[in-house]
Design goal:
By secondary structure, this protein is of the alpha/beta class. The chain is 53% helix and 13% strand. The chain is elongated, with a radius of gyration of 29 Å. Bound molecules: adenosine-5'-triphosphate. One of its GO terms (molecular function) is ATP hydrolysis activity.
Length: 586
């Protein structure tokens, strides 16, 4: 192809930019590591080359193909890459641990390289195969200058697309999964499909640019799509800023330009290669040492300064905080329980953590589960939410069995939990934490986001307004745009509360919601729980502080060694010396 050398180099840097941004969607936004970016890039290139080939002899072998027009080859490249990405991701996405994904993608990278080298009649083997230049109707690219303009447009469009997806409700869901997948499921969201779709999307973009790049080069060979290249793309994301599309763009431009700049300074191509590695390695070391979150971190603010990080603890929650009174009432006995759990048990090896546990929870009631450390209280919540499967028994919510349905389905059905230790999504804003928890968001479904973005945007406005309302309700509306990990612990707890309410669930299981906060924040939380019960929520709370229990609980269930030993009012329990001894360990 004729044209300037600079344009050719710049075009190849743009390939790296597009690949880095596609990987950033996966690695930075969704937190899913892939070592197979180069393989998907190659899958697209080879698919397009094979589908557009008509019978080219190359390296002693004849590569035969159906001779489709370029656009047909391009579309088949995208479709094949998307499917390949989905299939590779699906088994790993079912596991929570990311190292399965790293192993699977590495295996796919090797499988691809081996196949490209081995199936000579299809791929041309190690010598590669030629492919026809890009031509769509009258449109063709004949010079490197034209190619630069074309690929610059493609790079800008793909960066805008990646940014759109990253900032969409689907992107927010992916970020939640990256932060704490277990919590996302406990909020009623499925995680396997979004993770697999993120993978398929990144693979599709890589495959698409692979097809375009191969048609520009008019040649494909296995050496272009090796593991070294996959590592280079991953380094662009890590150095630029995982989660920040502009960051990976800048890093790809810098890293991709090292060798051409050295050559421009007078080095030969052979001399520039080792120096490129040295500078690349140095950039990595310096980046990891001085900018561990990347050159342009995800939550960097361009205008308006930093997030209000160290905002003082707020005590202006607009719920009753004057003279304490129990807002909820013990419910008449003839009403049906919202939650009916019967005969739950859990054994861990030789330890019977829970034995024959039964409980009924009524609408508007606050029940406290108390007992000494290790009594089995948190295990009860795990069993109710199916975080762990009960060995025996039944669990019903509003008369329907929810036993064994899985955490996400149970949460969707109407029972959610507040985790001991908060588990807020630390790298996200308070507003995003709450917005993510809301049900029925069309923008969380990738297909609906892409096919009807306007409907997704309209719903997103509503979701954000409601999230803001909830943050105001718990008294931290002014911190909506703060990054949660920068907030004091008490305020993080309030974010988690607002997030829990956002699910709209009618049953709330609260595991030590006031532990670790100062007395004033604890008073806020007490008032908040009372308000929720008064609004008709059914609440079961695990709490160590007898003060908080006496303020809140309509009924107390006392557990010891996995069994219920008392069920009554707080006065019933505290008047029994044997229970007081057990509780205080005397
Ligand atoms: N996954 C597990 N594997 C093995 N043992 C477990 C597991 N989870 C809990 N246990 C054990 O089961 C018992 C009950 O634990 P659990 O966390 O439910 O108690 P708890 O009443 O909530 O205690 P604490 O008040 O200290 O939080 C403990 O002895 C604990 O060590």
């Amino acid at each position: 192809m004729t044209g300037s050398y600079f344009a050719d180099i710049a075009t190849q840097v743009l390939f790296l930019v597009i690949l880095a941004n596609s990987l950033n969607l996966l690695l930075g936004v969704a937190g899913q590591m892939s070592m197979a970016t180069a393989a998907f890039y190659g899958v697209g290139a080879y698919t397009c080359a094979i589908m557009t080939a008509t019978g080219i002899t190359y390296g002693g072998s004849e590569a035969v193909g159906p001779g489709w027009p370029f656009w047909g080859g391009f579309l088949s490249a995208v479709v094949v890459s998307v499917f390949a990405g989905f299939l590779v991701a699906l088994p790993a996405a079912r596991r929570v641990r990311g190292d399965y994904l790293i192993l699977l993608t590495l295996a796919f990278q090797f499988l691809f390289s081996t196949s490209a080298n081995t199936f000579v009649s299809l791929t041309g083997g190690p010598n590669g195969m030629a492919m026809p230049p890009m031509a769509i109707g009258d449109f063709s690219i004949d010079t490197t200058d034209q190619a630069l303009v074309f690929f610059a447009v493609v790079a800008v469009l793909s960066a805008l697309f990646c940014s759109f997806v990253a900032r969409s409700p689907f992107g927010r869901l992916l970020r939640g999964i990256r932060e704490d997948e277990g919590v996302v499921r406990a909020l009623g969201k499925t995680t396997v499909l979004p993770k697999s779709l993120a993978f398929a999307l990144a693979a599709g973009i890589a495959g698409g640019i692979g097809a375009l790049a191969a048609s520009y080069m008019q040649f494909v060979a296995p050496a272009t799509y090796n593991l070294d290249f996959a590592v280079l793309v991953a380094a662009c994301v890590a150095l630029g800023g995982p989660g920040n599309i502009l960051g990976s763009t800048v890093a790809a431009i810098v890293i991709g330009s090292i060798r051409p700049v050295l050559q421009n300074l007078g080095m030969t191509s052979t001399a520039a290669i080792p120096w490129e590695s040295v500078i690349f390695g140095l950039l990595l070391v310096l980046g990891i040492r001085f900018r561990p979150k990347g050159f342009l971190p995800e939550n960097m603010r361009w205008f308006g300064g930093r997030t209000p990080a160290a905002a003082p603890e707020s005590h202006d929650m607009p719920v009753s905080s004057g003279k304490k009174q129990k807002l909820s009432k013990i419910v008449p006995e003839n009403r049906k329980p919202v939650v009916e759990a019967r005969n739950l048990s859990k054994r861990y090896g030789g330890l019977q953590a829970v034995e024959d546990f039964s409980i009924d929870l009524y609408k508007g009631e606050i029940v406290a589960l108390i007992g000494p450390n290790g009594a089995g209280k948190t295990t009860i919540f795990n069993l109710l939410m199916d975080n762990q499967r009960s060995d025996t028994g039944t669990i019903k919510l509003n008369g329907n069995s929810i036993f064994g349905l899985g955490t996400a389905t149970i949460a969707k059905t109407g029972m959610v939990r507040y985790f001991q230790g908060v588990r807020a999504f630390g790298n996200m804003t308070a507003l995003d934490n709450v917005a993510l928890a809301m049900p029925h968001q069309p923008g969380e479904k990738l297909l609906r986001l892409l096919t009807n973005p306007l409907a997704a945007c309209a719903k997103e406005k509503e979701v954000r307004a409601k999230a803001m309302e909830l943050l105001d309700f718990v008294g931290i509306g002014h911190l909506a745009n703060s990054i949660v990990q920068d907030l004091p612990f008490g305020q993080q707890k309030l974010v988690a509360f607002a997030r829990l309410i956002a699910t709209g669930a009618e049953v709330l299981l609260l595991d030590e919601p006031a532990s670790g906060v100062d007395p004033r924040a604890a008073e806020q939380i007490i008032a908040l729980v009372q308000q929720l019960a008064a609004n008709g929520k059914t609440i079961c709370i695990v709490e160590h502080s007898l003060h908080i229990v006496s303020e809140l609980a309509d009924r107390v269930v006392f557990m010891n060694a996995g069994k219920v030993v008392a069920d009554g009012s707080i006065d019933d329990v505290t008047s029994r010396p044997d229970l007081v001894d057990l509780y205080f360990g005397t």
